[in-house]
Design a protein that fits this description.
The structure is a homodimer of 206-residue chains. The first copy, chain A, is mostly beta strands. The first copy, chain A, contains 4 helices and 17 strands. In chain A, the strands form 5 sheets. In chain A, strands 2, 5, 10, 11, 15, 16 and 17 form a 7-stranded mixed β-sheet that branches. Chain A has a 3-stranded antiparallel β-sheet with strand order 1-4-12. A 3-stranded mixed β-sheet of chain A has the order 3-13-14, with no helix packed on it. In chain A, strand 8 and strand 9 (87-88) form a beta hairpin. The first copy, chain A, is globular, with a radius of gyration of 18 Å. The mean pLDDT of chain A is 91. Chain A binds a DNA duplex (24 and 24 nucleotides) through residues 32, 34-35, 38-39, 41, 72, 129, 143-144, 176-179, 185, 188-189, 192-198. Chains A, B: GO terms for molecular function: DNA-binding transcription factor activity, RNA polymerase II-specific; RNA polymerase II cis-regulatory region sequence-specific DNA binding.
Amino acid sequence: VTATNCILQDVQVHLVNREMWHAFSNLGTEMIITRIGRRLFPTLEISLSGLDSDGRYIIKADITAADNHRYKYIPASGWVPVQNGNHAVITSHNSNVSFGTYEHPDSPNTGKFWMKANSISFKKMKLSNDKSCKTKGCIILNSMRKYQPRIHIMRIDAPNLGSRIAVFPETRFFAVTSYQNVQVTKLKIQNNPFAKAFRDSNSQLT
Amino acid sequence: VTATNCILQDVQVHLVNREMWHAFSNLGTEMIITRIGRRLFPTLEISLSGLDSDGRYIIKADITAADNHRYKYIPASGWVPVQNGNHAVITSHNSNVSFGTYEHPDSPNTGKFWMKANSISFKKMKLSNDKSCKTKGCIILNSMRKYQPRIHIMRIDAPNLGSRIAVFPETRFFAVTSYQNVQVTKLKIQNNPFAKAFRDSNSQLT
DNA sequence: ATGTTTCCACCTAGGTGAAAACTT
DNA sequence: AAGTTTTCACCTAGGTGGAAACAT
């Protein structure tokens, strides 16, 4: 095992639906968390290159704290950290601590399999605020905090072949129990097929 | 590795919905095969015991020929082998040759995981008659032939730990492109939730 | 004649945000 | 006041057998 293998140096991770994420990120992305678990929208969708065709890999997503603040949403100002007197409240939320992991259901699989996919979708991944939530693929978060998803590529066809973590800043989001920014709600309705019922016929996208 | 391990001697495989299969088997079970793939009904549903809690296992289903005949359905007689003059036509269909394998989507997993499940369901497994069918989990069969599903339990946490094959004769079925025996159709409609639209309100089950 | 393919109405299953009720 | 939970109409997504068209 060489140092090169240990970090999977040649592996490239691409965020397929980067433009969609970017549109939400500009507004401050919000994701609903519920007792039974709710999907993310947009979905995490990646593609991979630079894997060893014959190697075996597990692909996972996890979610870390983006910072250690608690936030509130003020319509005129947007998302601002909660202040206690003159300084921001620092909580025990540490970045690099994972709040839960979702293994892609096609894992484990060969490098060839992962690379030939146009899109590796984490659409069944769900978010909850209930610690006792047993829904499959559910990650437990706290409301009114900011989170950062990550993608893990782990080679497993021999011990200690290493892994790689990819972080896309445009996928950061606030966990909420109901939407705060009405612009976010509108963008969800316009783009999520399951929210089609709420689309205003005057402002339909082609 | 002992001889005992090699055949996973203590492993018990139980057909959870045996009664449903039996009801169909009495009539001569038929399964529709289509270009895009069609689920089996009843679904293969098993439970397992006698696994090593800490071992890792792959659970698969596959389908073999039940015999080497071609069949036709005669309403007055039922399913009879096609005759050529006075003797049955013998084809190249050999039992013990698998026509396709469907790996349970939770594979691989621990003995503990598999044993704690009340029902390990192969409901996403599909049957097709189109060799070029790329639908995930699709097994290619020939129409008007008799088939025998099998369950495979393979231990994989070390090389050559062996495997076990379980065969339930009540799960034998005829592959068809449209139902032949109207009694089979009726039993499907009464028991498959997706066929509820065709239930006669006079003969509903409670 | 016999078997196959395509299309369809009618279901199951489950993912949306809205709104009202609830909690603290 | 601020945030959470529940319920709901309205969608997407996809599994049924029937019937008509098609193939050989």
